[in-house]
Amino acid sequence: MNQTYCPCPKCGQLRTRVVCTNCDEEGIRIRRRRCPVCEHRWYSIQYPEVIVKNQEIRWTKTGATVRPYIFDKAISL
Q1: What angle do CA 11, 13, 16 make, to 5 degrees?
Q2: pLDDT of 8-41, one tens digit each?
Q3: What is the extent of the structural domain holding 42?
Q4: Which of 8, 12, 61, 69 is most buried, most CB within 10 Å of its CB?
């Protein structure tokens, strides 16, 4: 079954079906969804993931102090 947990915007049902999926030239996926409860149909968009280097991630603490994010420290917790 092709079901996901994308809530229906009309009735709030969590289990909805993907009717069809298209991908454009930039890698953006456009999915046509249908609710099995109220039969509402709508589109959802999924953007491709972007690779972020560790140097580009910053941690903003209370008081607006910005520190570099240490990835290895987060994994060891």
Answers
A1: 120
A2: 999 999 888 999 999 988 889 999 999 999 999 9
A3: 3-76
A4: 8
What value, to the nearest 5°, has the Cα angle with vertex 10 and ends 32 and 18?
20
Measured CA to CA, the distance from residue 69 to residue 35 in angstroms comes to 41
Number of domains forming the structure of the chain: 1
pLDDT band for position 1 (cuts 50, 70, 90): very low
The contacts of residue 43 (CB under 8 Å, 6+ apart) are 30, 31, 32, 33
Q: How many CA atoms lie within 13 A of 21 on its CB side?
A: 11
